[in-house]
Automatic annotation (TrEMBL):
Tree of life domain: Bacteria
Boundaries of every Transposase DDE domain copy: 364-465
PANTHER family for this protein: TRANSPOSASE
Protein name: IS1182 family transposase
A matching Pfam family: DUF772
Organism of origin: Hymenobacter ginsengisoli
Amino acid sequence: MQGQKQFTDKVVVRFRLSERVPRHNLYRRLDEVLDLRFLYEETQALYSHTGQPSLDPVVFFKLLLVGRLENIASDRRLLDHCAMRLDILLFLGYELDEELPWHSTVSRTRQLYPATLFEHLFDRVFHLCVAQGLVAGETQAIDSAPVKANASLDSLCEKQEVAPPVLTVAGQPAQTPTLPAAAPLSAPAHQLRREAARKAKHGPETGALGGKRPNARLVSNKTHYSPSDPEARISIKPGKARALNYLCSLAVDPAKGVISHIQADLADSRDSLHLPGLIERLQSRLLTNEVPLREVVADTNYSNGFNYAFLEQRGLTGWIPTSKLYKPSIEGFTYLPEENAYQCRAGKLRPFRNYGSTPDGGWQRNYRADYKDCTRCPLKSFCTPGAPQRKITRTAFDVPYSRAWQRQHSRQGRYMRRVRQSTVEPALGQLLPHYGLRRLGTKGQAGAHKTMLLAATAYNLKKLLKHRVKQPQSMALVIQPDHLQATNSLFWRA
């Protein structure tokens, strides 16, 4: 006989939430591992001793962790989702008939709490991973990826010209080099004129098929800003469209893929500029957990002579490939370290003259021969045909750069390249699309930093819950000497 289920919307008198959630549930196991009671003491100074009770700090951070684990970036969607899940209600400590906080309360609380509080939560979870043996610490892989900001390119506004205010000193007008506090809304006049001349020179923007697009907007971080999020920057990644982004820089431990550090940087700066600050904070966290750091692995975007020297100064080995433009030696010239000069094929010296700067802000050393040595040289037509004398420029950190180049072309260097590809790239591939980092729901660099810290914390908690300590089970068979002789006789008799 065919069965038909009849539903009656009745009031259940006896119902216990803990009996409906199984013991192996993710949030039930997470509640057993994670202890957030330290948040009460750290947030006590942020509240007054009078007034209405605020949102529980423990409930607030549990809500944010649920949003990262469920890949929900919107506070409205997050609270609607939590109201429909029995396991999440048990994790938050809410009954079925108890209303969850309002979404605006969650947003205001996020703005109230400083980023250091989110960092303390990340440190606590990272300490749990270290205690369970998930972190080796000797090698750390570093990489970065752009994350879309909560702003649109259609809302960009042009920066206005700003001139230094005129002040009078002893009855005479004097110019002061100070600028107003609203720096993102303004730009120096000479910078705007230079950008306008560059746009006029290039004309309309060229489309993908080579055609002209007269209505296209030529925007840049020097001339435009986002009024909704002034700290968001325009960045371009090869193969993707231009967008307002933040830069997510992180370090991953190769042992089990645990994220050891994460930070939000401005997207219009180079990756190599953020390495020194990232290493200092990473090394401090590892030393706090008594984990040594000896090697750093990164890609070519972090290649910089200053970074190589910085890592060597801190006693670290940097497995960072050098730039393709770097040459370990110059054809036809021999470097003499005692004299700090280059010797050409004719036996003439190119001594060190002075220091200079590169277009990207780096330092370089200039070597130049005397004018009479080059003009009278019979090899001038082969050595320097288009200039009166030969000039050699080398990076100011040529020695650590050369050592990095040798490590790159070694067998160990090729192995460390594979270590980076199998460690940090899978972490980014999971963190960005599956932990609410496809697009930020907050504004400002501080808000982006808090969101990235929560995503990394949720990622490490997943690693911690999946880890199982394998207890080796071995059974030893002890044979007494009397039985051993009997066993041998039986064996040989057979």
